[in-house]
Here is the input.
Amino acid sequence: MSENYKMVAKTIFGFEELLETELKALGAANVERGMRMVSFEGDKGFMYKVNIAARTAIKILKPIYTFEALNEFELYAGIREINWADYMGVQQTLAIDSAVFSDFFTHSLYVSQKVKDAIADQFRDKYDERPSVDLESPDLRINIHIHHNKVSVALDSSGESLHKRGYRLATNVAPINEVLAAGLVILSGWDGQCDFLDPMCGSGTILAEAAMIAYNIPANTNRKEFGFERWRDWDANLFNTIKESLLKKQRPFNYTIKGFDIDATAVAKAKENLKNAELDEYIEVFQQDFFDSKKETEGPLHILFNPPYDERINIDTEVFYKSIGDTLKKSYPGTNAWFITANLEALKYVGLKASRRKEVANGALDARLVKYEMYEGTRRTNFKPKE
Here is the structure.
């Protein structure tokens, strides 16, 4: 049985608590929340498990070495202290991702170049050959984090960002990140105990993530490759055992998941992506204008959507957001409606009072996830005094 070691899961700003909860539920030890990251401990099998199952993680890093450096010479020397032949062969390729928060080092690309030089020179001195750099699909992706004079070196076990689930091949003008979509579903409190609707579904990302949550399907089960599959200690049998175990934990779902969009092209792309994810039998997608729609189901309804922000899609902001509020008020009684927007000014045009507001980051945009509660009848008739 392999020993536990420390790992770091990276995430989106505002999702740290969600990721912490996920890691604990998966069985992580010594979980500690930080800024845009959560550290934890587990063995190699658990590293595989987290990569496959975690919905709100972007990267899973395995730290291997830390040292102090005040200049490029000390950085170079510290990197050469690591025996890189333990992690890769001279014929393999590498890529270095650097994040720098230091007065001594100010350019991340320069740091990456010095790290690459140190690794390449070590191989050249030992084997008279140097490994090549491949920024697109390297055999080993190395993560460098410098805070003041502390240098942390980690191996990137995920490879490409974990938001690239493997199902979304067709996209629209402003697609939502898969990790962001999953986090929004979780933040909105949807637990699979009522019907779900995305009335501006675009390429279907929110629908896909909601369905995987409802049926407890691992987030990255459709992904073609993880970074650790090219590592020297790659254990295919262990990986397959863990993946099969996760897939056996799927659960039944007794409600509906539906999505529609005014754009026929978006609907076609959503259907294609959901088919790629093997979720098409669970989700109904069709063309419909939200502003001409009404609630079609009995009982509670949970709505979550990502309307245009007027960033990459031109809209009349005032008219558009007023129409959102009018449609929810008139046509969707008995509904908890959530949407995300980075156009904070536009929220005043909705004409409804938000019962919840959560700060989230959509890429570089400062956004809000807002909730509007649509009652059957009037709010007063639904009010129950405290006993």
In short: Residues 380-387 have pLDDT under 50 and may be disordered. The chain has two domains: 5-156, 178-217+252-382. The CA atoms of residues 61 and 156 lie 5 Å apart. The two ends are 56 Å apart (CA to CA).
